[in-house]
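re: that chain from earlier
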Amino acid sequence: MKQKLVILFAGLLALTTLGIAQDTQPSSKAQERIIKEVRHELLMLPYFGVFDFIAFKVDGSTVTLLGEVVRPVLKSDAQNAVKHIEGVENVVNQIEVLPPSSMDDRLRLQLFRAIYQYPALQRYELGVQKPIRIIVKNGRVTLEGVVDSEGDKNLAGVRANGVPGIFSVTNNLQVATQ
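^ sequence. v structure.
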């Protein structure tokens, strides 16, 4: 009888532990809601511009922020905006603040003009949030974001490579799926 009670107690304990483990991980609907809210909060940041790139990943109740920003306040604003979302228990902020550089600032403006004011790419200039992000760090350029076609991706890369004073261009633009 004692052996049956011990086995029954051990079984109940295992079921209880399983239930607790499941409760700590958000359901797929909760995870989708967190992803949607994080994306919304990041896009609403007041100083988030074309020269900043912020990405994130959600793993359970932990949100990891990634990317590069020009202003230090944007790094802390992003973390503060995300940590107040219901269901988010931990925020890992791996956003890099780009070093201040007058040369990089000049290159950013030249790249913006070269890409967004080129007739074939001007449609991407419409709207508040620009889909092509221009990241400049020590004369090295990375293009991030989403474009409509492989041709637009290549054209943006060619336009960026044509700006004098740039050491290298990494084209990480993604083509949107129709």
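The chain has two domains: 48-98, 102-175.
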